[in-house]
Write a structure and sequence with these properties.
The chain contains 15 helices and 10 strands. By secondary structure, the chain is of the alpha/beta class.
Length: about 425
Amino acid sequence: MPRWLLELDLVDGPVPWIIWGIAAAGVVILFLRRPKPRRVVRTFIAVVVGALVGWFLVVWVDAADLFGVPMPDSVKWWTTGGFAAIGLAIVTLWDSRWWQKAVAIITVIAATLSMGLGINQAFALDRTLGDILGINTLDGIGSLAPPLKNQADPAQPLVDRWTPPADMPKTGRFGALKGALALRSSAGFHPRTGTLYLPPAALVKDPPALPVFVFMMGLPGYPNPHPIVDVLDKFAAKHDGLAPIVLIADQLGAENQNPGCVDSAAYGGVETYFNKDIPEWIRTHARVLQDPKYWTIGGYSNGGACAFIYGARHPDLWGNIATASGEPWAGFGDPKSVQKVYGGDQEAFDANKPEAILAEHPGAYAGHVAVFAAGELDHKYGPANRVSADIAEAAGFDTTYYLVPGATHTGPGLVGGLEKAFEVLYPHWGLAR
């Protein structure tokens, strides 16, 4: 598939409006046929039946919990309208001229694409076709400012000693970790290409050492940088270009597989990758602050489960945890992972839950920050994150629990959770007062 097609903006660009316009024009043309009595009746029945099929399809998906999350309300309207248009187009194939049949076929295609675009925007997770397909089309990140030798973290917060130079870029830069900057596993895990975000403050001639934030997306998914980049560019603009250096890394290895956040014979050393390989890469390639106070592990949905596990098991490495609609443990949304990862060993599975891990490190979390956010309307992950916040607080974390107003387990829940996490962490990192 050509790269230009994979990089089409399906959210803010002209593509959605062009497709929606074609579908709308097709519907209007098909409705303007001569209103013969039988034709009117057939058209009415086709439109109503199509609309009902679209509506009840989403109702059934919700009732059967096929995707593990409730469908956004707008999905019902997109499917209702889309199937109604398809019904109109199909009935037009009878008793019509050749050009009307051609319009009907185009309308079916455009209505189907319109539904896909509308549903994608309702979930608000994927910006491009490449994002939807899990294909990273980004160029390499380019050069990085090297770490400072024998660096000690300054006692004074960065916000109190930072003056942005006049030529500092307005936004950050992000790109893939390729070539000499490729991030590899030392323990047999096969991650997909990670991405790195450098805030404006990291792009000046002599940049300061910055906090680091390692983030994981959900299942299915891939290291998609767009949601977190959009949020951090806004935070950086409000804080003189200051933001953490962010590494969006892959904890899955493939779009739909679940390694359970641990090293295993089935998937290789995913936990080693995140808690040995990635930290070593960061320390040898990026100019970051060294104290665990400035190191945060975070994730969305499945990635949130891994973040909680890693932050609990490695308090000497990760000073903070930030999850958005995170699973409370690995396998929460995929119980079959017990068999594949643990060979059916329920005790090993339970030992990898955060509550068990936290109990192994009494007193280790003083001064550590944990943010657990979920959508207000997410009736599965919202309560689960309340439980996660409670056990983290009991273990000693300085904990924040937040419900994103009006959000479910989709993009708005992710974005709102990230915004709350950065609101809490910026003063802790010394990037805001």
